[in-house]
Write a structure and sequence with these properties.
Blueprint: H1 3-12, H2 27-39, H3 42-53, E1 67-68, H4 81-96, E2 100-105, H5 132-147, E3 153-157, H6 162-171, E4 182-186, E5 189-191, E6 193-194, E7 201-203, E8 206-207, E9 209-211, H7 216-223, H8 226-232, E10 237-242, H9 253-261, E11 266-272, E12 282-286, E13 289-293, H10 300-304, E14 316-325, H11 326-334, E15 344-348, E16 352-353, E17 359-360, E18 367-371, E19 386-388, H12 407-424, E20 441-443, H13 451-460, E21 471-473
Parallel strand pairs: 2-3, 2-10, 3-4, 11-19, 20-21
Antiparallel strand pairs: 1-12, 5-9, 6-18, 7-8, 10-14, 11-14, 12-13, 15-18, 16-17
The protein binds uridine 5'-triphosphate.
The site of uridine 5'-triphosphate (UTP) has 21 residues, from loops.
Amino acid sequence: MTTEELISAYRAAGQGQVFAFWDSLSPQARDQLAAEAAEVDLAEVERLNRTLVFKAGGGGVNLDGLAPAPYEPLPENGGNPAKWAEAKAAGEAALRAGRVAAFTVAGGQGTRLGYDGPKGTFPVTPLKKKTLFHVFAEKIRAAGLRYGRPLHWFIMTSHANHLQTETFFAQNHYFGLDKNRVHFFRQGRMPAVDFSGKILLETPGSLALSPDGHGGSLRALHRSGALDLMKAEGIDTISYFQVDNPIVRSIDPAFIGFHLLSRSEMSNKMVTKAYPEEKVGHFCVQNGKVIVVEYSDMPMEMQRETAPDGTLRYPAGSIAIHIIDREFARRLARGGEGVALPFHRADKKIPTIDGAGQPVKPEKANGVKFEMFVFDALPFANNSIVIETARADDFSPVKNAEGLDSPQTSRDDQMRQFARWLKAGGATVETDATGVPKQLMEISPLFGYDTDSFVERWHSLPIKPEIRDGLYLE
Ligand code: UTP
């Protein structure tokens, strides 16, 4: 398409405002705007305007025939220990065979944290102030050492943070990982529109574009060639986690094993909701498929509903940890008849320009961003399963600058975990009433990354270190 044709197509679609400042732009700025404009699927924007922007309430969710999803409880909560042991063995075999890759989605904007830089470069550990990427790198390295097969790690970035992310890894020598096994690729982006469906400009020469959501990861895995690389390397199992959760078990053999033994195409971890109003998605079944119903889409009376034994009827909270089958990701990314992730509408404050081309920083939402969610892939997956995990051992995200899910809560959760591990190894650790040790300490995933691996290593030490302020085990 020539630039003239592109501009005509925008005018015909009622989006001619995108080129309002064209005549005043330098040749370079024109090239950039034209390239960005060419990236946008105008028919898709028109469809999203019709279905999401102009429609009050943005759609709503069908709750017909909804039931709580069954899940595999932890052995300590009544699950079958033999089944967990079998799953762990199956996962370990897959790791020894090199079938598993780690996959981190790190393309988000992290607006709530308000940190200037890719979120993965945010320091999170209590003592050494290691960054999120550093922590994951050590977990992935530890798993590679334990199973004798170094893992590949795929990291999805955004246009905004890609270069910074790559540079950060290079500067830190890939945290001891083989750089040929660390792969970065950008996710797609979507234009933002105002409430009348007009695509917004961020500057006279650029569109207001933003990442297409973590659901964009499936397309991006495909488009970037990551799935082909996995295939060539004999990897068929993708361990998916978010960049903001330092205590995630990045590589969890039991989870991998449950996924493989069930021939599941996409598997899920749940935690029991802490309280009925907790803002997490709910694992449910509908039409025989596991799905996630967001807290905002489930009526509060359903969220509060209890079973005859007094527990919540919908207890299973989603924590965005999945195992994804490689070819399932490809199938969804390719799309086709009825196979596509839906977009969701998010009303946001979107920096833009006024009619004179001057910057506007809105104080309230002035437009709509479109995002896909990875859990919307679930209804397309065969044999999807849900397993339980202990929140304290898998989920403590850094979302907000303060309060709930903040650097402070995550740091405390890491410290509590270190204290539990030390106690499991037989050490005496002084803690406060909530389990946070009185001494500042840190355990590297290279020393131990769960109770078993920690205790094994601890017992192998001929002389146990003193439990003191500044204790660091690696
Ligand atoms: P969040 O939903 O917490 O969004 O992302 P966010 O953009 O990081 O943060 P806020 O809402 O602006 O404060 C959950 C995970 O999904 C990734 C994030 O990087 C994080 O790991 N994500 C989110 C993407 O990779 N791409 C996206 O477009 C959105």
